[in-house]
Design a protein that fits this description.
The complex is a heterodimer of chains A (159) and B (533). Chain A has 159 residues and is α/β, with parallel strands linked by helices. Helices cover 49% and strands 14% of the residues of chain A. In chain B, α5 runs antiparallel to α6. The chains are: A alpha/beta (159), B alpha/beta (533).
């Protein structure tokens, strides 16, 4: 049986061709945000809120599909849960940092895990911010806005 | 096959040693006996290998009495120790047993059978104790894991409730009437309470297992009090209860974790508001006490009905529930005061309460003063004399975005490290970072030099900061330097008094600029309310 790592790399290699096509600039691009969470209800609520803030949203419910979808959709920002099926948020972060074109996507982690144990490791792995669930919506939206502005102007984000 | 029991006999009298050896040789199964005459040899032997039991004479050439068993117990806390003494000293025997010694035998009284039995039982008892201890530790660990799992699991549905209630409240699911909006706000408030309870539950477990952490820095306690008051203003006005603060302007810098102390103050003020009837007052006070210059005293008092004298000694206990704020309901888990006291204790302080029925309660605690003059002494003096001039260098490490993105805490740590590398350890003192407003870290350096020469240090810091990648990406560092003026010392003063004067002037400068930047920040935030929606 192929290892998890091998199957992820495989999936990403297959996706590479498709990616080129989807890079065609759309008219009046809005920022696209990818929500990764295994809780469907929470995904839906976040979708409604993000759309109300005029963002385009794509969703993934596990780590594996998050990586594949990131490759395909090239979101401007990823909102990532840590406890995920298939491969967890930390692994997703690790792989995102290894792939050209994905490594500079800002990742905001939104997890129920204790920040005292999880915040520093996720920031060290390249996330730009850590929120514990339930997060304050104004703060979360503020960080998302700041991240997108920063990646729009500087083109490069702190990691 | 089981390895035979081995006994370490610590006995300086060869005759007594032989006697014990003879008695233990007859036992079945046999016991291996190693004998050493001195405590120092025994400690060495214990470091090398662990015997099944220690037989100990108290009066040795290099140690006597209680000291002997204390040092053995300290070296080998898990090995059963049986004392073999020439003296029938009841109180010493009792003391030994209380310290963890398994048995106290009198040399003249023992027979072979007696000694053998004492040795076996001591080993059994010790094994039992150890397994009890292990079970207790396992249970505690299990409880921890359970609580941390539970709090994680509780957060998931809570997040869903929070999200959907706020969706409706924010009008993202259609228009909301005034009444509906008020009801939803009540629901959201309960979510916040539940969230705080989950957090406290986890914190209490941490406190219990010694895993609670604090990150002390240099803080102006007046600033933290001002922050707490700002946070509590709305809640107090609702009731209405007045909140006032009086801060002694002479208070020096305090060495404490600003977030944790804010947490303590907010909890005490919140409690005060809860237990005070409308139109009452909650007062926060910070002052110095003449008898103890090493601590700052803080208190939060209210004009509520006071605490029952019988309950007073128990209010800091975990899960203690006082009677209700105003009308019979109980709120919270009863962890707030327990956690507040734990936080203060971690800072090396103490917290206590006083109350008078009908007149109100006062919660007091103290925090250690940042003893600047002690730390300044080696750097501001040279050959027993005060150096001629001093400069206060200030570095503001500011994030490029609010809130900062990425590992900002680590970036600040690295900035501090750079500054430490750029100063002269024998002439300059880097103070712990100041918690100023928001995410900006302010680092001060007291440099024993003339203002005209400070440019070199600033240049060095600036160049070195460029090597910190995290900082380059996420923030900026602005440097400034001001001479420390107004240091008037006279020959009549001792060197210590002169150092004290320097410390006072430095603190004044720091407190003054900090208050200034807070006011500026407040003005800014008033003028430009952050709109995120």
């Amino acid at each position: 049986m192929p290892t998890l790592e091998a199957s992820i790399e495989n999936a990403m290699a297959n996706d590479r061709t498709a990616t080129e096509e989807s890079r065609v600039p759309k008219a009046q691009r809005r920022h696209k945000i990818m929500v990764v969470d295994d809780d469907a209800a929470l995904r839906e609520a976040l979708n409604i809120r993000l759309r109300a803030h005029n963002y385009e949203v794509v969703n993934a419910c596990d780590g594996y599909s998050a990586l594949a979808l990131a490759q395909k959709e090239h979101p401007g920002l990823i909102l990532l849960d840590l406890g995920l099926p298939a491969c967890d948020g930390m692994t997703v972060l690790k792989y995102l940092r290894q792939f050209r074109g994905l490594e500079s996507i800002p990742v905001v982690v939104l997890s129920a895990r204790d920040p005292q144990t999880s915040e520093q490791p996720t920031l060290n792995a390249g996330a730009v911010a850590y929120f514990q669930k339930p997060a304050d919506n104004d703060e979360l939206m503020g960080v998302i806005r700041v991240c997108l502005e920063a990646s729009g102007t500087a083109g490069r984000l702190p990691s | 096959m089981e390895t035979p029991a081995s006994v370490l006999l610590i006995e300086d009298n060869p005759g007594d040693a032989d006697l014990v050896r003879l008695r233990l040789v007859e036992t079945d199964p046999p016991v291996k006996v190693d004998c050493v005459p001195r405590l120092s040899d025994a400690l060495k032997s214990l470091a090398a290998k662990t015997p099944s039991l220690v037989l100990l004479d108290l009066d040795l050439p290099d140690s006597h009495g209680a000291e002997t068993f204390r040092r053995v117990l300290e070296k080998a806390p898990n090995v059963p120790v049986v004392i073999l003494s020439g003296q029938d000293d009841q109180s010493l025997a009792m003391k030994a047993v209380h310290n963890g010694v398994q048995d106290y035998l009198i040399k003249g009284d023992i027979t072979s059978k007696h000694l053998e039995r004492a040795v076996r039982y001591a080993m059994e008892r010790q094994a039992l104790l150890r397994s009890l201890d292990m079970t207790r530790k396992q249970q505690l660990e299990f409880k921890n894991q359970f609580l941390s799992h539970v709090s994680h699991e509780l957060r998931t549905p809570l997040t869903s409730i929070h999200q959907y209630v706020s969706l409706v409240l924010d009008g993202l699911a259609g228009p909301v009437s005034g009444d509906q909006s008020a009801h939803l706000r009540t629901a959201l408030k309960s979510v916040t309470q539940l969230q705080a309870m989950i957090r406290d539950l986890l914190e209490a477990t941490r406190a219990e297992t010694g895993k609670m952490r604090i990150e002390p820095r240099c803080i102006a306690i007046g600033e933290v009090i001002a922050q707490a008051l700002t946070m509590m203003k709305a809640g107090a006005a609702e009731k209405p209860v007045g909140i006032e603060a009086s801060v002694d302007p002479e208070i020096p810098l305090v060495y404490a974790d600003p977030d944790r102390i804010l947490e303590v103050l907010v909890h005490l003020i919140d409690n005060g508001i809860k237990f005070t009837p409308p139109n009452g007052t909650v007062r926060v006070k910070a002052c110095m006490v003449e008898t103890d210059p090493s601590a700052v005293y803080l208190s939060v008092s209210d004009t509520g009905k006071g605490i029952d004298q019988a309950a007073l000694p128990r209010i800091f206990e975990r899960l203690f529930q006082g009677g209700d704020p105003m009308n019979g309901h109980q709120t919270g888990l009863g962890l707030g005061l327990y956690l507040a006291r734990e936080i203060v204790t971690l800072h090396g302080g103490r917290m206590w309460a006083a109350s008078e029925q009908g007149a109100g309660s006062t919660f007091s605690f103290h925090l250690p003063v940042y003893s600047m003059s002690r730390l300044l002494a080696p750097v501001v003096t040279d050959k027993g004399k005060l150096r001629p001039s001093f400069v206060l260098v200030r570095a503001d490490v500011k994030p490029k975005t609010t809130p900062p993105l990425g590992n900002w805490r680590e970036a600040c740590e690295q900035a501090l490290e750079v500054i430490r590398r750029c100063v002269y350890v024998d002439k300059d003192l880097v103070l712990p970072p100041m918690a100023s407003n928001g995410f900006t870290d302010t680092i001060y350096v007291v440099a024993s030099t003339d203002i005209s020469r400070i440019a070199i240090m600033l240049e060095r810091i600036e160049q070195q900061m460029k090597t910190v990648q995290l900082l380059e990406r996420a923030g900026t560092v602005s440097l400034s330097a001001e001479p420390v003026e107004g240091i008037i010392t006279s020959a009549a003063q001792t060197l210590e008094q002169q150092i004290q004067t320097v410390a006072e002037r430095v603190q004044e400068n720091i407190l003054w600029t900090m208050a200034g930047s807070r006011q500026a920040a407040e003005k800014e935030s008033d003028a430009d309310p952050r709109s995120v929606n």
